[in-house]
Amino acid sequence: MEKMARVTTALGGNTLSGRTMFCHLDAPANAISVCRDAAQVVVAGRNIFKIYSIEEEQFVEKLNLRVGRKPSLNFSCADVVWHQMDENLLATAATNGVVVTWNLGKPSRNKQDQLFTEHKRTVNKVCFHPTEVYMLLSGSQDGYMKCFDLRKKDSVSTFSGQSESVRDVQFSIRDYFTFAATFENGNVQLWDIRRPDRYERMFTAHNGPVFCCDWHLEDRGWLATGGRDKMVKVWDMNTTRAKEIYCVQTIASVARVKWRPECKHHIATCSMMVDHNIYVWDVRRPFIPSAMFEEHKDVTTGIVWRHLHDPYFLLSGSKDSTLYQHIFKDASQPIDRANPEGLCYSLYGDLAFAAKESLISSDSNRKPYIGDRRHPIFFKRKLDPTEQFEYISSSSALSVFETDVESGSMDWFVHTAKQYALAGRPLAELCDHNAKVAKGLDRNQVAQTWTMLRIIYSSLGNVSSANLNHSMGKGSAALPLMNSFNLKDIPSGLGSESRLDRSKGESRTENILMDSSSTLINNEDNEETEGSDVPADYLLGDVEADEDDLYMMDHENPHAEEQEYSLPQEAFPLRHEIVDNPSALDHLQDKADSPHVSGNEAETVSLTPVESFSLISISHSLYENRLPSDFFSPIVRDTLLFYAEQGDVQTAVSVLIVLGERIRKEIDEQTQEHWYTSYIDLLQRFQLWNISNEVIKLSTCRAINCLNQASTTLHVNCSNCKRPMSNRGWICDRCRQCASMCAVCHHVVKGLFVWCQGCSHGGHLQHIMKWLETSSHCPAGCGHLCEYT
């Protein structure tokens, strides 16, 4: 501590001097407050209530206000405040609901002055009026705020927020009659002390409890709030509606906020849990603190600037039972450790690159952008000569590299997301539909992927026989390309001696598997089919050509063809009777049963000029009953990984949803969650909210399924008095009327409620639908012609 710097500040006729120092307390502190001349500080907690004098080198204990043999709960303080007009007047908020005032000018040891016991639960905050000596305001866990005149025994006004507990109350520094109150449900209310019946203004400031607020010392309309959502927000209250002008994202719940004197955009914060540090932020630079104090070892519970016009001394109390005085020259500056380089892509492919200005200041090609962008192409922070810190070391210049409009277009992503079908149909239909969508956007590789997935995972047995190509007529439908081939693709070396030899044993996987259900397509005419390359020669006896690349052998009995040969009774094989569209089974069975054909010849199908053909169509999917769909799962997994690595997370997620359990077990949960979050983020960037919600609902990851269940709040107002409803029931607390009455049955709607946006009347969905079948007028009798979508 001896190495710490010493600071001296002149404030009018007074001089503040000191260094970073601390003292150990007897117990954890809950709150601290400083007197008007910045010479003393009061520390209050559950088991401590002391006043310390702030000397140049140390804190010196001046007074212990916990007196008596058996201290009561009145000494157990949740908050403490020192009056800025009267240096002898203090007020505390007790955990038992009592508001206590203390008069330091009393000659007795017990300085307790008045007790106000009107609150029913813990008092969270007390606040003196900045200019009115006898006015005290309190906010309690019971949801009420009370204004006390210290010259009277009871409160003079009670303000009901019609909400949950009050967490903070603060009088406006500039407006005499105005005070702000923050609530557990995320609302902030502005009140006029002359009108205790209702608030002047209310708005939702945070998603969750608002723990603290503070009026700006210079700008009368600025109100800072901090909440459990880890955000500090600055609101401009000069407009008709509260307008958020700044937002700072912290790393933990915000417990206290205090504007820094003499620095318009600086605000100090501390956290309620997890984070023990105190931060000073420049709200114009919300992503990194301007200064940070790291002395405390436990949660900081109270912060206060030592003097109203001094920006260099900050006092803090903590649960680690220490009281600190911080000076800014000893604060760490996170900006010194920040990386001034950054890189980011926009939605439309533009690239933004930030780098140290010293590195690229010599680039003569840098020139301002003349386009119609909202911001200039280069950014440089202007230094304020009154700033305590200089940002020269972290000064960056931003360059934007634009992509070509055509090449950088992301229309395909939006169109694909809108047109893809992910559920509600059979797998084959989903794959066909998505393949058609991809094909229409010239994404041929993705279209082919969907087609392959349909072939692998959907059984052709579900396809109607009308789609099978049993005829060569012009009106016949063709099977997919994978299930058919042309004879003209057969090597020419086979020539006219080609034949189809069916093996009895297991075939090699690289050969084409044809079972007994294979269909030979005959031409209706007794001529060679037009376009066929097969010569019109007779096919005789055995074949001398190499057939290994086309035909299958009997691997279990490789010497089957070397068996004893029996002389056929006829020199030429008998030709079967020509019929229209013969069945392959009957065709082969007739030849096998013929008494004039030998056994080996019964297994040979000979092609005559009359029977020549140009297309073989297989009525069953390839590899059926031999290679199950699980055989292809590793290949499909690698395909999805490929698309994800290429940046096409849309295809990866869409396939993942369509295939569901068929492929889910092949990809680890963490990878799936990463894909889902990336795709959902992209959809939300393009404002495709409905599609994003559909993806969340169809997700197979538990962490993703709950995304649309969190951070969703529906605020309901009473239909009679238009006031916000509480969460306690269906009856409005103010007008005592049921809020959501069905216009047809006149009962409370506790489920799905449908209403007309023209007249605001509605009710149960089924009742309204039945009513509109017979009448188009509103069932409430207002005469409006209701329309429902």
UniProtKB/TrEMBL annotation:
Keyword Zinc-finger in annotation: yes
Reactions it catalyzes: S-ubiquitinyl-[E2 ubiquitin-conjugating enzyme]-L-cysteine + [acceptor protein]-L-lysine = [E2 ubiquitin-conjugating enzyme]-L-cysteine + N(6)-ubiquitinyl-[acceptor protein]-L-lysine
Any one Gene Ontology cellular component term annotated for this protein: GATOR2 complex
Associated pathway: Protein modification; protein ubiquitination
Predominant subcellular localization, coarse grouping: membrane
Protein location: Lysosome membrane
Family: Belongs to the WD repeat WDR24 family.
UniProt EC number: 2.3.2.27
Function, in words: Catalytic component of the GATOR2 complex, a multiprotein complex that acts as an activator of the amino acid-sensing branch of the mTORC1 signaling pathway. The GATOR2 complex indirectly activates mTORC1 through the inhibition of the GATOR1 subcomplex. GATOR2 probably acts as an E3 ubiquitin-protein ligase toward GATOR1. In the presence of abundant amino acids, the GATOR2 complex mediates ubiquitination of the NPRL2 core component of the GATOR1 complex, leading to GATOR1 inactivation. In the absence of amino acids, GATOR2 is inhibited, activating the GATOR1 complex.
Species annotation: Lepidothrix coronata
Protein name: GATOR2 complex protein WDR24
